[in-house]
Amino acid sequence: MEKTITDDGRVFIDMPSDPAQNPCLDCGACCQHFRVSFYGGESDAHPGGFVPDHLVVPINPVMACMKGTEMGHARCVALTGVVGESIGCSIYANRPSPCREFPVWMDDGSPNPDCQRLRAQIGKAPLGWKPAGA
User: pLDDT tens digit string along 77-121?
Assistant: First the structure.
């Protein structure tokens, strides 16, 4: 797991592509649960934006969300694969800030309680503490 601190102090997280170190790759529960809302300027329709605009829905003049997640409890349009088995993100390198900021493990190495709750809802085993190297 690689953390990057942005100029404005936000922590962006990149998970490893190795399934042994990335429990997200056989889960995806968060990607079909949360409304993925973010500043509309993250859309590539705006200078400096990076989220593909054709996958974005405006919420108001300032905020947008990923298509499919408008009401919450629905699958993000960028989610690929079968939730609970094998998933991916078709825009991982260009995903919005909420996806970059959602931690599987907290700073102390404990599993994120939201992640644990959502994993349980799809029948996945709870996560243990962050493994070395993850």
Answer: 999 999 999 999 999 999 999 999 999 999 999 999 999 999 999
Count how many residues are written for the chain.
Answer: 134
Q: Distance between CA atoms of 99 and 103, rounded to whole angstroms?
A: 9
Q: What is the DSSP string of 5-55?
A: E-TTS-EEEE--S-TTT-GGGG--GGGGTS--EEEGGGBTTSTT--B-GGG
CA 61 to chain CA centroid, Å, is 23
Asked if 79 contacts 32 with a C-beta cutoff of 8 angstroms, the reply is yes
pLDDT exceeds cutoff 90 at 2: no
Q: Determine, yes or no, domain membership for 134.
A: no
> Where in the sequence is the domain holding 117, given as residue range(s)?
2-121
